[in-house]
Amino acid sequence: MINLEFIINMISLGSLYAMLALGLVIIYGILRLVNFAYGELIMIGGYTMFLLAGFTPLPWLVVAVLAVLAAMFTSLFTELVAFRPVREKSLTAMLITSFAVSTLLQNAALLIISPRARAVTLPQIFQTSVMIAGTSVPWRNILTIFTSLVMLALLTLLLRRTVLGIALRAAADNFTMTRMLGVPANTVISAAFAISGIMAGIVSIFWIGRSATVTPTIGAPPLLVAFVATVIGGMRSLTGAVVGGFVYATIISLLGVLLPPDLLEFREAFMFAFVIIILLFRPQGLISGKTSEERVG
Amino acid sequence: MLELNDIHARYGAITALRGVSITVSQGELVALLGVNGAGKSTTLACIAGVLPPWQGSILFESGSIVGKSPEQIARLGISLVPEGRDIFPSLTVEENLRLGAYTRSEKTEYQRNLDEIFDLFPVLKERLQQSGGTLSGGEQQQLAIARALMSRPRLLMLDEPSLGLAPALVDQIFELIARLHQRGVTILLVEQNVHRTLEIVDRVYLMNTGLIESQGTPQQLRTYADIEGIYMGVRRQGNT
């Protein structure tokens, strides 16, 4: 059961979940906000693909790029009109706002498009497979792994090599101090929302690539995955988000082959039992938020 | 250069400042002294824009800075080294310094500033690629001051830089402050170490319960023997 095909699928799923978790944790790290409207960015990406691929002659690669941009601009726009006005008030206000944004976007999709699932036209490569060492591996999975590697490399480069990236990491350590060095709060937060939106947009391509349909509520499952993965990995660290994504994918994939068929439909329940066990032993997540609480006097 | 007039500030319902007025002139080294809870750090927080005062005015180089954000105030050339240092533990020493220079965009200037910093703090050069969280307390304090200096501040505010340091390091920090002062940096210093502070500063404000109690040069203040006695006593308590 656990063969090459299984392993590649698992890594592909892990890559996808890692990108998902990263998009959520980059905002949490700075604002301590779990953005519950994050899943809706994936929905926006999905509907952009549905509209552009179905009703315009644009080549598919352009459609994909535009879907990512749509998710990014939605993310930036929600920050500007919804989160920024309540940012100084309280964390609770921001949390409630994120639920409101989520509901608003979902209902907009319900009203403007349809409550029913819409088929997204995908290029051939999403349906074909390639033979590797005697097993057939879907191209989709290889693309997922490749894309996530590129994104991780780009994100690392941004965070390590650019002043904006250093400021983002500093803001996650101590936001007020970062501002006192002259780094504008809005710049840092907008950058975080932009990165989050890009991650959601890229995930939307591969998430929707699995089912080839988009619905107004398509954002709920990936939001849950992202949330659980960051909790497993540790909310305070980007590395933790990646680790959490892979751990989540590993557990859920293993459950898929190891559970007896009668119990398969309870896979999620077993998944959460595992999460509870992990949290009992590592309440801070697998990767704790580095050194911020371990300062030497 | 800096002028606070009748500043009132509060944390929620708790009043922390009840009409503080101080001035700092170009090139001066001025200290705020007082026991815990006197409002020294709050005064600095008001100037840095972290805690907006609800009454009073703050003028910096003749312009009002009340209501400006911390990043705007930093861009005007006011730099605060907070109590507890607040270096970025997950960033390397170099990255900490690089962010300190965020308001200065010029690359050649950055390198020149960096060389000057290494001259003042040789230990930081050795630790350049280490993450800030792995430094010792004294090294972190040096890094915090160095980071503030990277912006070439017009006004440097230091909040209890000697707190929690070994006596030898305390001496080093005070020597450093005196040296920066000689180089012409304008400094507003908050301290509990009365004795050492009086040795290096131009002027002192004594604070108590959110008010300025008295002010003057160290010579003038030394004549109030009992006041110094009170603070010295407090200091001894704090050190044991």
Task: Report a brief summary of the structure.
By secondary structure, chain A is mainly α.
Report on the biggest sheet of chain A: 2 strands, antiparallel
Q: Structural class of the helix and strand makeup of chain B? A: alpha/beta
The low-pLDDT segments of chain B are: 235-240
Dominant shape of chain A: globular
Secondary structure tally, helices of chain B: 10
Explain this structure.
The complex is a heterodimer of chains A (297) and B (240). Chain A is mainly α. Chain A is built from 11 helices and 4 strands, in the order ααααβββααααβααα. In chain B, a hairpin with a 2-residue loop joins strand 4 and strand 5 (63-64). Chain B is 41% helix and 25% strand. Chain B has 240 residues and is of the alpha/beta class. Chain B has 10 helices and 10 strands. The model of chain B is unreliable at 235-240 (pLDDT under 50). The radius of gyration of chain B is 17 Å and the shape is globular. The A-B interface holds A 163, 166-167, 169-170, 172-174, 176-185, 290-292, 294-297 and B 48, 50, 69-71, 73-75, 79-80, 82, 86, 88-91, 95-96, 98-100, 102-103, 131-137, 140, 147, 151, 164.
Pick out its properties.
A: 297 residues; mainly alpha; two-stranded antiparallel sheet; 11 helices; 71% helix; globular; disordered C terminus; B: 240 residues; alpha/beta; Rossmann fold; 25% strand
How does the SSE layout of this entry go?
The complex is a heterodimer of chains A (297) and B (240).
Chain A: H1 4-31, H2 38-55, H3 60-86, H4 91-112, E1 118-119, E2 129-132, E3 135-138, H5 139-161, H6 163-173, H7 175-180, H8 185-211, E4 213-214, H9 220-233, H10 238-258, H11 267-281
Antiparallel strand pairs in A: 1-4, 2-3
Chain B: E1 2-11, E2 14-24, E3 29-33, H1 40-48, E4 55-60, E5 63-64, H2 70-75, E6 78-81, H3 93-100, H4 107-120, H5 122-126, H6 137-149, E7 155-159, H7 167-182, E8 186-191, H8 194-200, E9 203-208, E10 211-216, H9 218-222, H10 225-239
Parallel strand pairs in B: 3-8, 3-9, 6-7, 7-8
Antiparallel strand pairs in B: 1-2, 1-4, 4-5, 9-10
